[in-house]
Write a structure and sequence with these properties.
By secondary structure, the protein is of the alpha+beta class. It is 27% helix and 32% strand. The protein is built from three helices and seven strands, in the order E-H-H-E-E-E-H-E-E-E. The strands form two sheets. It has a five-stranded mixed sheet with strand order 1-2-3-4-5. A two-stranded antiparallel sheet has the order 6-7. A hairpin with a 4-residue loop joins strand 3 and strand 4. The radius of gyration is 15 Å and the shape is globular.
Length: 138
């Protein structure tokens, strides 16, 4: 249909550093996250490699796709005892930093959490305000 325009949004859980597209997504995170709030990528990889069953928290990393292309990385932390999900980072390539794109990924992440039967009582988000333009980095 020549008058049809489609976009396909998708997320994929990263469970180990060898997962397909982990490095591509991590590179986007590294290039787009302000240095004053950025977690060292070696530390992210370290926690990804740890046994989730033995920790009081769980790191959840996701590759973000648009039309089958990696466009970002999301990192959530689940505090098991507190039943709390913290949206730590949602790093997108600059050309995709639009509310419509951002909110679509937030919705997909929430659907993933619900579908995985994760017991959640609270959601938290960290918001970074850049200077001097005072734009919110979420």
């Amino acid at each position: 249909m020549p008058n049809l325009l489609e976009h396909r949004f998708a997320i994929k859980r990263i469970t180990k550093p060898s997962n397909e597209d982990y490095i591509s997504a991590l590179k986007i995170y590294n290039e787009t996250t302000p240095p004053d709030i950025k977690t060292n990528t070696n530390e992210i990889t370290y926690w990804l490699e740890q046994n989730r069953n033995e920790l009081p928290f769980e790191i959840m990393l996701f590759s973000l796709y648009l039309n089958n292309m990696v466009v970002g990385l999301a990192m959530l932390t689940y505090l098991k005892k507190q039943k709390t999900i913290i949206f730590e980072y949602l790093a997108l390539q600059p050309s995709f930093r639009l509310n419509a794109v951002f909110f679509t990924y937030i919705s997909l992440l929430q659907n993933y959490i619900n579908d995985s039967n994760t017991d959640v009582a609270y959601y938290l988000s960290l918001i970074h305000i850049s200077e001097p333009t005072r734009q919110a980095e979420i």
